[in-house]
Design goal:
Blueprint lengths: L9 H7 L4 E6 L6 H9 L3 E5 L7 H13 L3 E5 L5 H9 L4 E4 L5 H11 L23 H11 L1 E6 L2 H5 L1 H5 L6 E4 L1 H7 L9 H16 L3 E6 L2 H9 L4 E6 H23 L5
Parallel strand pairs: 1-2, 1-8, 2-3, 3-4, 4-5, 5-6, 6-7, 7-8
Helix pairs in contact: 4-5
Length: 270
């Protein structure tokens, strides 16, 4: 496929080889320039959020196009597991899909059914489009290549999901298990306490089960110290924060520093 320059899913390759990858979330800023900034910084993947974000499919399409052009892997979190929506998100350029609140193997089999071209699944056919980076390629070659490069990530976000994890992943097809510590902590009755012993114990359990099967585990981290701890615990995808958290954190820090400087100089705020 090298002669037609179709993007290879480097994140899927790195995870399969036992490597560590770094991503970040975009849930608020719809200007494709945000993708160029993420690419310039050196991230491997960008997660585009339609579950909690305001993005239309047209915006997701523009962000995916910029990611592919910038050689950052775009992975889209779908707000629904409807098969036609899954097909459409892939057809506008997603190189991976991430599904929240997975608690059973049946849910995984259902999304794989829609994510993959026949005979592996029933993904609808299209040609000369974003999934092939607009290259003109024989249909059988294109579909095989895209199937091989499509990444499936699932989010484990409840006690039930942790308890069912072995049965969820043992059917295959999953490239990345993301531990959603926001919802998981709530499930354990300690909302948003990401480092609570109950949450960390569950995360360690997920890592151990997935490691036995050669599947990567990821989680979102809002600080470098948290990311360092997660790496030490065996997490191989670090999803570092999001556009809204990085921006608001920088703004808060900036205004606090500016006011402190003004106070030191005896300036009077209006």
């Amino acid at each position: 496929m090298s002669e037609v320059k179709i993007n290879v899913n480097t994140v899927k390759q790195q995870l399969a080889a036992g490597g560590v990858v770094y991503g970040t979330w975009v849930s608020t800023v719809g200007n494709p320039a945000i993708i160029r900034m993420i690419a310039a910084a050196g991230f491997d993947a960008v997660f585009l959020d339609t579950e909690h974000g305001p993005f239309s499919l047209e915006t997701i399409s523009a962000l995916c196009e910029m990611a592919r052009a910038s050689h950052v892997v775009p992975i889209v979190r779908s707000y629904d597991r409807n098969g036609h929506l899954i097909n459409r998100i892939q057809d506008i350029g997603a190189m991976g899909m991430i599904f929240p609140h997975i608690e059973s193997r049946a849910e995984v089999d259902d999304v794989l059914h829609w994510m993959l071209y026949p005979p592996a699944g029933e993904r609808g056919s299209t040609s000369v489009s974003a999934p092939a980076d607009w290259a003109v390629v024989p249909g059988d070659v294109m579909k095989s290549f895209i199937n091989d490069n499509m990444l499936l990530a699932i989010q484990i976000e409840s006690k039930e999901a942790v308890e069912n994890l072995e049965s969820i992943i043992d059917g295959g097809g999953i490239d990345l298990v993301e531990v959603g510590r926001n919802d998981l902590s709530t499930s354990f009755g300690v909302p948003l306490q990401f480092s609570h012993p109950l949450v960390l114990e569950a995360l360690d359990q997920v890592v151990a089960i997935c490691r036995e099967r050669g599947i990567a585990v990821g989680t979102n981290c809002k600080s470098l110290s948290d990311a360092d701890e997660m790496l030490q615990r065996g997490v191989r995808h670090i999803g570092y924060s999001s556009d809204r958290h990085i921006l608001t954190g920088a703004y808060y820090q900036a205004i606090a520093g500016l006011k402190k400087s003004a106070d030191t100089l005896g300036a009077v705020s209006p």
